[in-house]
Amino acid sequence: MKSSLTVGLAQIAPVFLDKEKTLAKIEATIIDASEQDVALLVFGEALLPGYPFWLALTQASEFNNSVQKEIHAHYAMNSVVIENGDLQGVCNLAKQYKIAMYIGVIERPMDRGGHSLYASLIYISEEGNIQSVHRKLQPTYEERLSWSPGDGNGLQVHELPPFTVGGLNCWENWMPLPRAALYGQGENLHVAVWPGSDFNTKDITRFIARESRSYVLSVSSVLKLSDIPQDFPNRAAIFGSLKTPLANGGSCIAGPDGEWIVSPVIDKEELITATLDFNEVLKERQNFDPVGHYARPDVTRLYVNRERQSTIQLDKE
């Protein structure tokens, strides 16, 4: 049995809210990762086609605001419809190069009517198959003006020898019970995806690693004004001549002892790689295992509902 795995953290910028051009950039990154023998490649939260940064810069909660409606429609048109094959090119490359991956997308799912948007973390196997779609359980603060709340269907782990991998979106990583749901299924390599800030990643990455005695990959995007296309609706009115980055990255890796393997990488696009040794997980589980010898299921247990939620249930014809 192999004892190590090479991982890649794709800290890149989207071509903001342009699905096709961002997909092309993602696919180019997959090819780059294959040349570095990456076996697990991770992209940040909502990278495809981008995070809704405009919500914090505008009167986003103003009811029936025509500008917000125009931007939202543009966002929806560039979101991912899995049923339409939007990720087929990515899946084909995953199969071609034998790379498993997590990718953060804005999903417009047909099983919820095909109009509302969800921040989804998608796992694609090294055979090129979509194995789980985790819709963010609770959009954070202003995100609720754009994204819908998800369900527990995607609280799944996947075997990627020698590891068992699982992942959560952004502030879901602060939610103790979803973390515990993944730990309880044997997770020992945790993926945390973020829109892009070392403010988010610099503390919790090491904390989760120490709590779970697992490797933790925090993966973020970067974004500056020049990444926003000139034809973005109301670009000048919203972003003006912004000097500071909207997202500064902060991607990093912590080991099962909670110490840095790669400290947060700031303000640059980079494919960050590292080779992880599974034996380090076993060493740290010797004195603490949160769902094994240090658990008391006779006292506390977690119930997880993994049913995919939908408005209707159609009878079979």
Low-pLDDT parts are none
User: What is the average per-residue confidence, as pLDDT, rounded to a whole number?
Assistant: 96
Number of DSSP strand runs: 13
Query: Which structural class best describes the helix and strand composition?
Result: alpha/beta
- Bin the helical content: 10-25%
Count of alpha and pi helical runs: 7
Strand content: 15-25%
Shape: globular
Q: What radius of gyration results from the CA coordinates?
A: 19 Å
Distance between the termini: 47 Å
Oligomeric state of the chains in view:
single chain
Which labels suit this protein?
317 residues, alpha/beta, 7-stranded mixed beta sheet, 6-stranded mixed beta sheet
Description:
- The chain has helices at residues 19-34, 66-77, 88-97, 176-184, 198-212, 235-239, 279-285; strands at residues 4-11, 40-43, 100-107, 118-124, 130-135, 158-160, 163-169, 189-193, 215-219, 222-223, 247-254, 260-266, 270-277.
- The protein is globular.
- The chain contains seven helices and 13 strands.
- It is of the alpha/beta class.
- Strands 6, 7, 8, 9, 10, 11 and 12 form a seven-stranded mixed sheet that branches.
- Helix 1 (19-34) packs parallel to helix 3.
